[in-house]
Design goal:
Distance between the termini: 54 Å
Largest sheet: 8 strands, antiparallel
Strand order of the largest sheet: 7-6-9-10-1-3-4-8
Helix content: 10-25%
Oligomer: single chain
Radius of gyration: 21 Å
Strand content: 35-45%
Order of helices and strands: HEEEEEEEEEE
Number of helices: 1
Number of strands: 10
Amino acid sequence: MKNRRQFLALATGLAATSMAVTTVPAFAGSSRSGNFSGRSNHVTTGKTELSSNNVVLQSNFSLDGAPDPRVGLGKNGKYDPKADLGALKKLTGKQSYRIGKGIKASDYNEVYIWCRKFNVPLGVAKLGN
């Protein structure tokens, strides 16, 4: 009888540990996505996804070119310079940008490709659920 109790205690402990390891916050696995449309006479196309940790420009992303393009976030038609994620790495293709501490992704509903030199949007993707 003692061995059976030990087995059941071990099995219950393993199940609890397994459940604890696989539990993740609700937002961690979710993301919002949208498609870029060009702004300021620029052609910006492709899909982007925003999660709590990063912005991913998908493989179909494309920008026709501009000086000093940046990736950032905005809300309701307004770019937020405090949510600048860095320089655009390349004009086409998949690329990822980490969201820094102090920037709460859930506060934003748009991803921007922004020209810092001329302070204008090059492309905006409105995010859905």
